[in-house]
Amino acid sequence: MALIVQKYGGTSVGDPQRIERVAEKVMACHDRGDQVVVVVSAMSGETDRLLALARAVARRPDPRELDVLLATGEQVTIALLSLALHKRGCPVRSYTGTQVQILTDSAFNKARIRAIDAERVRRDLAAGRVVVVAGFQGVDGEGYITTLGRGGSDTTAAALAAALKADECRIFTDVDGVYTTDPRVVPEARRLRRITFEEMLEMASLGSKVLQIRAVEFAGKYNVPLRVLSAFEDGEGTLITYEDPDMEGPLISGIAFSRDEAKLTIVGVPDEPGVAYRILGPIGEANVEVDMIVQNVGADSTTDFTFTVHRNDYEKALERLRDIAAELGARDVSGDPRIAKISLVGVGMRSHVGIAGRMFQTLAREGINIRMISTSEIKVSVVVDEKYLELGVRALHEAFALDRESMAEE
Ligand code: ASP
Ligand code: MG
Hints:
By secondary structure, the chain is α/β, with parallel strands linked by helices. It has 2 domains: 3-174, Acetylglutamate kinase-like (Carbamate kinase); 255-399, VC0802-like (2-Layer Sandwich), CATH 3.30.2130.10. It contains 13 helices and 18 strands. It has helices spanning 16-31, 46-57, 63-70, 72-87, 97-100, 119-126, 153-164, 197-205, 213-222, 275-285, 314-328, 355-365, 389-399; strands at residues 3-8, 35-40, 92-95, 102-104, 113-116, 130-134, 137-139, 145-147, 168-173, 194-196, 226-230, 238-241, 254-270, 290-295, 302-310, 332-345, 372-376, 379-385. The strands form 4 sheets. Strands 3-6-2-1-9-11-12-10 form an 8-stranded mixed β-sheet, with helices on both faces. A hairpin with a 2-residue loop joins strand 17 and strand 18. Bound molecules: aspartic acid (ASP) and magnesium ion. The site of magnesium ion has 3 residues, from loops.
């Protein structure tokens, strides 16, 4: 007998028929003898609808009251799913975040989970009941309702799975797993059977938005295997798990990319202590998040400095950089708002050299100029002109044979 946490997103519970389908899936798991805890999102579009309602009444809604409103979406779906299970004769109990005691801090609209008192859930499970918990919400020390930020139900599921020491946390969604890259760009992209927490974090933060990043962090920290799978089709999905030291993983697991990047350069700044801080300090204060940073080797006591930001922040960053340049007596400032980032991700890189070389060679063969490079232990990223993004991703997918399953994965 296994303890399984299942999470269903907004589309999976988007109408009564779909809720009935979810009830069937929950029943099937329960009938197999597993203990089942189900976390649900609000019906698709509902959280947006509630947000719009709030904004129609108050242009800047009070955060505490907004959470009181937003939390209702999930309260509807736990009740509906439980009704559907009751009808099928399945013993079930639904709980809101406050009732299970998903304790959070008081950062309304983006609260973080501090602790879960899962005693009640455990008692229900021991009594043979299915437990249905509202995703995305919790309660703070004052007893106030909080919500966890958009997509937060994934995190509820992972946190509950960790608290219950579940055998697996299954995230049912509208895709059937995690792919080697975005299939809209590379039709040959392949669903991965497994990927490590570390790799998934790199893939997610780089734009492959399959599930909320905090859920992966939670699962990784507490070592709960996470499985992403389709709510509509049968299949084993993708298992996100720890690295198995006894099993040789594939060299490269996937290619992540992001389109909406921009780069800025400040030329001829004094090559002396404190300069990086005097450039990036004010950029950070302007609330602009900096991604890649490159400082050139100095020549004649000056140096150049290039960094990337999200495209939405480009104008703001450029303006600040001009002021900074004047203060530092820099020679020039330039920028390019039409760049993209491509990253190869794989824990196999740790033990293999030559990945970066092969990547650069592949891009060179396609005549793609690399504008910036950065590497970490399990990732190599390059910045290229935006117009080469698709070409670059396709060429790399082929060069690293990502369309074929490596033997290590089988
Ligand atoms: N209903 C919330 C949202 O739309 C939480 C979730 O779906 O995970 O963001
Ligand atoms: Mg979601």
